[in-house]
Give the backbone structure.
Amino acid sequence: MIVLGIILMIIGFIAGIAPLWTIGIILLIVGVILSLLGSAGRPVGGRKYWY
């Protein structure tokens, strides 16, 4: 999710499409939060590991 957010941010910035930039930022933030929760050992969404 973090990689997808970065890709959308880059595409949105280069193409000048604001919604892609916004969606990229949101996906990046959600990905970082899920990564932090997962590394802390907390189950996220009822699953302890996401493969």
Summary: The CA atoms of residues 1 and 34 lie 9 Å apart. The radius of gyration is 13 Å. DSSP finds two helices and no strands in the chain. Residues 18-39 form the longest helix (22 residues).
